[in-house]
Amino acid sequence: MASLHLTRPAVGCDSLTVLRERHAARAKGGEVTITTRYRPKRFEELIGGSLYWIIKHRLVARQTILGFAENAEGHCVIRLDARIVPVRTRPKRAHQGWRYLKGSDAPVDFEGGDEALTAMPPKMLNELAKLALI
């Protein structure tokens, strides 16, 4: 995994389930894109790293950064792997746009994998996340 990552609030998502549904609806060819006004200055270091999603002031999941492009309006397009990987949650204040995250500060992937998380009711997931158990 790359040594540099991004964090970004999952605006409008109150759970990991909502984020997954939103991205599944937009996925094409195993890839999802998000648009931001400006390309990160250190974008080359981010390729192969991950974008970590913040939901309810916690880092909860990540997606691998596949690359960067520019759209017709001149905005930056971040290409992400469509697979959302749950991570051991950690507190993180929401912020505008994106922020860099060093590899040494990144949370580790959730050991139970997607199957264990999707089998749990969303309310239970939220409570376990608040207690920093997942």
Describe the structure.
This protein is α+β, with helices and mostly antiparallel strands and 134 residues long. The protein has one domain (4-130). Helix content is 22%, strand content 36%. It is built from four helices and seven strands. The chain has helices spanning 16-26, 43-46, 113-118, 122-130; strands at 4-9, 31-36, 50-55, 58-70, 76-81, 85-91, 99-102. The two termini are 21 Å apart. The mean pLDDT is 87. It comes from Parasphingopyxis marina. InterPro entries: UCP032025.
Topology:
Elements: E1 4-9, H1 16-26, E2 31-36, H2 43-46, E3 50-55, E4 58-70, E5 76-81, E6 85-91, E7 99-102, H3 113-118, H4 122-130
Parallel strand pairs: 1-3
Antiparallel strand pairs: 1-7, 2-5, 3-4, 4-5, 4-6
Write down the secondary-structure element order: EHEHEEEEEHH
Would you count the extended β strands for me? 7
What is the CA–CA distance across the termini?
21 Å
Shape: globular
What is the mean pLDDT?
87
What would you say about this model in short?
The chain contains 4 helices and 7 strands. The chain has 134 residues and is α+β, with helices and mostly antiparallel strands.
Keywords:
single chain; 7-stranded mixed β-sheet; 134 residues; alpha+beta; globular; 22% helix; 7 strands
